[in-house]
Amino acid sequence: SVDGDVHDEL
Amino acid sequence: MNIFRLAGDMTHLASVLVLLLKIHTIKSCAGISLKTQELYALVFATRYLDLFTDYISLYNTLMKLIFLVSSFSIVWYIRHHKIVRRSYDKDQDTFRHYFLVLPCFLLALVINEKFTVKEIMWTFSLYLEAVAILPQLVLLQRTRNIDNLTGQYVFLLGAYRSLYILNWIYRYFTEPHYVHWITWISGLVQTLLYADFFYYYFQSWKNNVKLELPA
C-alpha cells in the first residue's frame, strides 16, 4: 500500500 | 515511474556495477575511496529500512536489494579480500568521513518531513548521500591520476543524480501533490558537488587528454 508518506523513490 | 527516474536508477545501477566489475576483475581498488563506499553502504542501510514493511513494487524491492548487496560487497572487498585490500591506499584516503555522519544525523533530527524513526533515518540517508562522494573527490584530487573506471564511476554517479533532478521537475508538473523540498535541495547540493568534476571530465574527454583534476 503506497499511502501518502511512503517514499516510492530509491 | 518516468523515463528520467528509470534512466537515473539504471545509471546508478551502472555506477555500482562498474565499480564491482573493476574490483572483481582486476582485483584492485586503486583510486577508490573506501570511506565513500562505507558512507554509501550506510546510506542504503538507513534508507531501505522499509524494505520488508512497505511493498511498493517488485522493481523497487529488487533494486533496493541490489544496491544493498552491491554496496556492502564493495566495502567487504576493499576491507577483507586478501588481494584487493593490498591495493587500498589508506594513507591517501584520509577524509574524516565520520565528521559527515553526525551533522547529517543532527540535521535530520531538526529538518524532516515527519518526526518518526523511519522518516528521520530516511532523511539522514538523503543528507548523507549528498556528501558521501566527498572522500572520493578528495582522493581523486590527491592522487591526481584518475584511471578510466574510477572516472566513469564518479561520472555515472553524478549523472544519476542529475537525471533524478529532471525526474523531480517532471513529477512536480505531473503530480499535483508531489512536493518534497528536502529531497530536492539535498539532491541539488549533491549534484552541485559533482559540477567541477563534470567540467574537468568533459574537458579531458573533449581534448582527448587524460583526466586530471587541478591540485
UniProtKB/TrEMBL annotation, chain B:
State whether keyword Kinase applies.
Answer: no
Return the Pfam families for the record.
Answer: ER_lumen_recept
One GO process term, biological-process aspect? vesicle-mediated transport
Q: Where in the cell is it found?
A: Endoplasmic reticulum membrane
Key words, A-Z:
Endoplasmic reticulum, ER-Golgi transport, Membrane, Protein transport, Receptor, Transmembrane, Transmembrane helix, Transport
Give a GO cellular-component term.
endoplasmic reticulum membrane
Transmembrane parts of this sequence: 55-78, 98-115, 121-140, 152-170, 182-202
Q: How does it sit in the membrane?
A: Multi-pass membrane protein
Location, primary (coarse class) = endoplasmic reticulum
**Annotated GO MF terms:** ER retention sequence binding
Which first-to-last residue range defines the signal peptide? none
* Highest taxon of the lineage: Eukaryota
Report the InterPro entries cross-referenced here.
ER_ret_rcpt (IPR000133)
Family that this chain belongs to: Belongs to the ERD2 family.
Fetch the PANTHER family from UniProt.
ER LUMEN PROTEIN RETAINING RECEPTOR
> Which named protein is this?
ER lumen protein-retaining receptor
